Amino acid sequence: MLTSIFSNETASVELYSIFLCSVCSILLGICIAFTHKYTSKYNKNFLVTLSVLPLLVQIVIFMVNGNLGTSVAILGAFSLVRFRSLPGTSKEILSVFFAMTIGLATGMGHLLFAGIMTCMGCAILLLLSKAKFFDPNRQEKILKITIPENLDYTTVFDTIFDQYTKKVELEQVKTTNMGSMFDLSYRITLLTTKNEKEFIDELRTKNGNLKIILTHPLVESDL
């Protein structure tokens, strides 16, 4: 059975148990950090944070030791730290909660359970990060183009769109340069990505060689 190594959760904890839990927390935190490293963009400071976070959560659990009032206070402290920090990507938030969960498990003495969950969670993250069925549609693009005010943006690019795209949706129209130009934003689906340069060249002939931006839609904030 996946039982706790502590015989009585409200009693004092032996030094040997504290040392064992701390070593497990650090090792499991490093596993989570390595998994994050191979599945998403990262920086060194964040990986160090993931490695140490389970140990810090474990210490908090040791200090709470079954006290409900202290638990509420600690929860408030964690919320304060979260909202005072910069927003992260979805993968960073997932890794932080993953590390905190493992720290909760080791803090309660469930070392075997924490190890199994870490291995399972890391394996799932590695598998899903390599899975092709979650990849975005590479033919879907965001097109931003500037045109002079004398062009009718509702029809000026119809012929080009019919030739190079499967789907076009005008999402935004904005005046710029004191109203002398329009900034248009389209969400398009190309017939193929092999003729992107030809597509842009055709657009340039229509907008007088003004600014054109063709990017992938923001599927996830991975910046």
Notes on the protein architecture:
By secondary structure, the protein is an alpha+beta fold. It is about 55% helix and about 15% strand. It contains seven helices and four strands; from the N terminus they run αααααβαββαβ. It has helices spanning about 15-40, 45-65, 70-85, 90-105, 110-130, 160-165, 195-205; strands at about 140-150, 165-175, 180-190, 210-215. It has a four-stranded antiparallel β-sheet. A hairpin with a 4-residue loop joins strand 2 (about 165-175) and strand 3. The protein starts with 14 loop residues before the first helix and ends in an 8-residue tail after the last strand. The relative contact order is 0.13.
Percentage of residues assigned to helices: 40-55%
How many strand units? 4
Distance between the termini: 43 Å
Low-pLDDT residue spans: 219-223
Q: Structural class given helices, strands, pairing?
A: alpha+beta
User: What is the averaged pLDDT score?
Assistant: 83
Oligomer: single chain
The main β sheet shows up as:
4 strands, antiparallel
Number of helices in the DSSP assignment: 7
β content, as a range? 15-25%
- Provide the spatial order of strands within the biggest beta sheet: 2-3-1-4
Radius of gyration: 26 Å
